[in-house]
Specification:
alpha+beta; 6 helices; 2 domains; two-stranded antiparallel ribbon; two-stranded parallel sheet
Length: 134
Amino acid sequence: MRMCVRYFSKSRKTFVTDFLGLIEVVSCTGENLANALLEYIDKIGLPRSQFFGIGTDGANNMCGVDNSMYTHLKRQIPQLQLLTCVCHSLNKFAERAFKTMPDDLNYIMAETSNYFAHSSLRWDAYVKYCKANL
């Protein structure tokens, strides 16, 4: 498990993101990941009281509601907030929005992208058309 830390540096007067360490894990259950992380931060002397957020991808073992690393950490660090991957979150929003549109519009959007994706000539003609009609 790879860990980074983000903190405010008073000397630099800015936020700093730095590599914190690697933990070798054999089992990737939420409980095992949480225990490995807690053991590591205790070992290197970081006070749990200074932790206020954890960023993860959207995997269920990392941030699920029942038995994830986050839920196990939250029991030990009550102030902990979860920040899931922005890219995954935006993708989920886009998928949901796409599903609410009429099927004909979905088809046109998907096929329009496919039509231009494989031809630089078509793309160039489209760009010229748009510039001429703005």
